[in-house]
Amino acid sequence: MIAMVSTAAAPHKQRVSPVRLSAEYDPAPSRWLWLVKWLLALPHYLVLALLWIAFFLVSVVAFVAILITARYPRALFDFGVGVLRWTWRVDYYAYGVLGTDRYPPFTLHDVPDYPAHLDVDHPERLSRGLVLVKWWLLVLPQIAVVFLISGGYRFNGGLTGLLAVYAGVVLLFRGHYPRGMYDLNVGLHRWAARVVAYGTLLTDVYPPFRLDQGEREPVADEPLP
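^ thats the sequence. predicted structure below, dont judge the formating
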């Protein structure tokens, strides 16, 4: 007897964003520690100032490399992602979110047990044409949003900074981080991270005008071809 083969269509795989930002919710950080995090985070801010200057120079080199080879050199790519990752950890600890009391590590690499993570998929190829216009023209509509959200290409300021300070006040008096405020703030950082990754040439995937809230990077609703 011939076995019957099911003809049911397999479910479509789903696209995920090449930029993945996630965090782990802590409902009750310290009531008072956030008041002095500006001082505790100062060594990180000094290092990040230098790293962002280096990232700018690396992006110039990557621009030329993409224009010639259609590829972002892996070592340079990993450095750029590391700078974004370090920035996100510091902002998560300090006045971008105030989401944890665990001091951020001094490293460009991912730290699996730290409660904030950022990664970007390394593209096999990048468009030579897009690299000429995406960082100054195509990204312009999103730049206005990012300045409103986080005050610029750094993720610390703007609306996210205001939400973090308000969360700090709530913590001081109630000892609890409001979950809705947390999910909104992480979602705003996620939007900003996508825009920064696109504007710094790390991806050709245009950031959606969409606020994806919560701890984890959501799965997009468009099926793979």
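Strands lie at 14-16, 19-23, 116-120, 219-223.
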